[in-house]
């Protein structure tokens, strides 16, 4: 009974925070922007959150996180729209929606596919948020007993998992993660106060800012990659509300796939490095496997839209579990949201729930509010989003470039940051040419400093005894799993080359 009362009290705290006019406005702005950039190919949540990060300096912490999280949820809702209507995914996790969503649109059932996509996204998000509410407090409570060795082990595991588990080369992922760690070491040593790796540049004494790196490798490099892209027109058909209504058979065929997809997404969303793309492809494969008519997949099966979309959006909710409770992001977007906390002077980790309950629970309640807002935005206004798809790329990217430069300069009013922005923009473009993932780099930059701090604290507390990392169960398990992942990744790379 006490647990239920405590839970209800926390929800009341969150409701009081989330239902203020200011935070409702931030939530609406976030989900609207997220849907907008999710619909338009080539933008997405990464670029938008990178652009918005400088603005969070001037916002209330809860409002800032609500807006950034709204962008994340909105982009995942909107990403499948261009997959269905253009055959071009708005982000990697929406790529699966092309397989059956685009054939449905070509058959004149694009409105039904978009409607079911919205319903599946809503159900998946709701399940993910409920799991976040249930498990985050328990994990945060357990994490209060963690010491520096445990945090070091878990952060190391998160970095290695995010760098090796995915579609790209695991060795390249590890290399980019190491580069991110090296960049995080630039600046003033937090323990000794000595400057390191500044190479004679006084502007580097405070380190390389995450905002500069993120906006360089995501926004600037995206402009360089996509400036010459041709504009693709959506399929021409009506999208009135009655044209979007699924039949009874459509509902029957979609119900079970939505539940299965949400279950898969919830599990993989909470694991660092697994990524929405891998989980959605798995959800699609499961539906094809359990279907009595697997031959219809790829030709316009509504299950091929419902299951991946439920999976994708459920993973968004549970991805916040390790981010908010342990301060360990599972992907680049979570890393940027974590940076939003750091910008506000809030130390990520289990103490966030204790020291800032109004922020934590206000954020969770706002997820429910944003989810309802997204359902309203995505069904009646689908005609607006369809028309946005006809905007030529060459009109979008000059504005992105301008706002990127303004955002970077406004953080410290330092011209040197613009030079760094250009450097990391070229770096991101070269990484794309070499098929190097930049996500591990961002995670290495985010976790580099806390990883080093916890390692050195452990050495100070235990007088330089390295055995502490293997004598304590949690850190020992985390480090062992990280080493096994590295060995497996190297072995898999060599096997792939032989084949």
From TrEMBL:
<feature type="transmembrane region" description="Helical">
    <location>
        <begin position="328"/>
        <end position="347"/>
    </location>
</feature>
<keyword id="KW-0472">Membrane</keyword>
<feature type="transmembrane region" description="Helical">
    <location>
        <begin position="469"/>
        <end position="490"/>
    </location>
</feature>
<feature type="transmembrane region" description="Helical">
    <location>
        <begin position="24"/>
        <end position="57"/>
    </location>
</feature>
<feature type="transmembrane region" description="Helical">
    <location>
        <begin position="174"/>
        <end position="192"/>
    </location>
</feature>
<feature type="transmembrane region" description="Helical">
    <location>
        <begin position="395"/>
        <end position="413"/>
    </location>
</feature>
<feature type="transmembrane region" description="Helical">
    <location>
        <begin position="419"/>
        <end position="448"/>
    </location>
</feature>
<dbReference type="Pfam" id="PF01970">
    <property type="entry name" value="TctA"/>
</dbReference>
<feature type="transmembrane region" description="Helical">
    <location>
        <begin position="77"/>
        <end position="99"/>
    </location>
</feature>
<feature type="transmembrane region" description="Helical">
    <location>
        <begin position="151"/>
        <end position="167"/>
    </location>
</feature>
<keyword id="KW-1133">Transmembrane helix</keyword>
<feature type="domain" description="DUF112">
    <location>
        <begin position="24"/>
        <end position="443"/>
    </location>
</feature>
<keyword id="KW-0812">Transmembrane</keyword>
<feature type="transmembrane region" description="Helical">
    <location>
        <begin position="204"/>
        <end position="224"/>
    </location>
</feature>
<feature type="transmembrane region" description="Helical">
    <location>
        <begin position="359"/>
        <end position="383"/>
    </location>
</feature>
<feature type="transmembrane region" description="Helical">
    <location>
        <begin position="119"/>
        <end position="139"/>
    </location>
</feature>
<dbReference type="InterPro" id="IPR002823">
    <property type="entry name" value="DUF112_TM"/>
</dbReference>
<protein>
    <submittedName>
        <fullName>Tripartite tricarboxylate transporter TctA family protein</fullName>
    </submittedName>
</protein>
